Amino acid sequence: MKTILISNRKGGSGKSTTAVNLAVEFSKKHSTLLIDFDTQGHASIGVGLSSVEENGSHSIFLNSTLSATFRPTICENLTLSPALEFFDVYEYSDISGILKNRFKKEKINDFFEYCIIDTAPTYDSLLKNALEVSDIVIIPVVPHYLGIVGVEQMFRAIYQMSLSVGKKPPKVFILPVMYNPHINEHKESLKKLIENFGEDKLFSPIGTDIHLATQFEYKTPSVLSNKRSKGSNDYKKFAQELLDKLKGS
Ligand SMILES: Nc1ncnc2c1ncn2[C@@H]1O[C@H](COP(=O)(O)OP(=O)(O)OP(=O)(O)O)[C@@H](O)[C@H]1O
Ligand SMILES: [Mg+2]
Fold first, then answer.
1. Beta bridge partners of 79
2. Average pLDDT over residues 168-174
3. Residue 181 phi/psi, 5° resolution?
4. What are phi and psi of 46, to 5 degrees?
5. Ligand 1 atom showing the smallest separation from residue 10 Cα
6. What is the rounded distance in angstroms from the CA atom of residue 237 to the CA atom of residue 162?
7. Which residue lies with its CA nearest to atom 9 of ligand 1?
8. What would the pLDDT profile of 92-102 be if each residue is shown by its tens digit?
9. Which of 200, 177, 195, 178 is nearest to 248 (CA)?
10. How far apart (Å, rounded) are the C-alpha atoms in residues 126 and 60?
11. Looking at residue 78, what is its pLDDT?
12. How many CB atoms lie within 10 A of CB 74?
């Protein structure tokens, strides 16, 4: 199993939208687990469910198994571990290794080919737990000045956090999202991202597409309900590029 962490401390940068469409796209050919590790529960909503008040992903910090939190979704090969809505991460501010331990004890690797983890826009013990099990990190970023600053901060944060838990830092990639080629700042920021991090660190951008916003209201991911929309095509291309990178790694 390969585990993909979707993370950016910057809020509203397309993490949940990316996690949902990627998970659904992967599940068309591969058994996939989506862990919603953000108590906002937006990834859970994105696959037609919602956050829960018990037996959510965060219940592993309250002695639950991870498998006890699994729910089927609208996609046959996609399992969701939904967010636990009222989990207070600050009561567990110094905890690491719990998710890693669950993966090992429950042999999660044997049941899924891919695991995708959506995280909150925070730097906390949830991110640490997620990072410990991840092979690769995707940072979705809206291409503008503070977006670039945020990516630089994330690279440093992931490096620091990996060192603090004694893990080799995972490979980190950037996914430009909500990209509009008619906006000069977007074009310039994309160039800057390539200059600063190298072309091989960037995936093809996801354009701005209203279907990617309305999908949450309709509780059906865009790659399922609006198969031919620009946003869906962009996410399909991204999923393929990621699969190619994972095969090569
Ligand atoms: N490519 C896109 N085109 C248009 N709207 C988008 C696109 N990507 C995301 N959105 C919308 O932008 C908003 C933020 O996206 P999303 O919730 O995925 O970000 P996030 O990083 O998960 O946010 P948070 O930090 O709160 O978890 C949402 O309303 C979403 O529907
Ligand atoms: Mg989110």
1. 33, 72
2. 95
3. -65, -15
4. -60, -30
5. 25
6. 29
7. 14
8. 877 899 999 99
9. 200
10. 11
11. 98
12. 16
* pLDDT exceeds cutoff 80 at 34: yes
| Cα angle, residue 240 at apex, residues 222 and 195 outer, rounded to 5° | 100
The answer to whether domain 2-248 has CATH 3.40.50.300 is yes
Measure 240 CA to ligand 2 centroid, in angstroms.
Answer: 22
Q: d(Cα 113, Cα 27) in Å, to the nearest integer? A: 9
Strand order in the sheet with 114-118: 71-72, 78-81, 32-36, 114-118, 2-6, 136-141, 171-176
Q: Is the pLDDT of residue 248 over 80?
A: no
What residue segments make up the domains of the chain, in order of their start? 2-248
- Are residues 119 and 156 in contact, defined by beta-carbon separation less than 8 angstroms? no
Average pLDDT in the chain:
95
The residue to which tokens 């939904």 are assigned: 82
Cα angle 190-196-199, degrees, rounded to a multiple of 5: 65
Q: CA 12, 15, 20, 21: dihedral to nearest 10 degrees?
A: 100
Would the pLDDT of 189 be above 80? yes
Q: Which two tokens stand for residue 34?
A: 């989506």
Residue 219 above 90 pLDDT?
no
Mutation test residue for ligand 1: of 6, 16, 18, the one with most atoms within 8 Å of CB: 16
CA distance 157 to 151: 10
178 lines ligand 1 (CB under 6 A): yes
Q: Ligand 1, atom 28: nearest CA belongs to which residue?
A: 213
Asked if residues 124 and 93 have their Cβ atoms less than 8 Å apart, the reply is yes
| Pairing state between β 78-81 and 71-72 | antiparallel
Hey, what amino acid is at 123? Y
Provide the CB-side half-sphere exposure for 209 (13 A, CA): 22
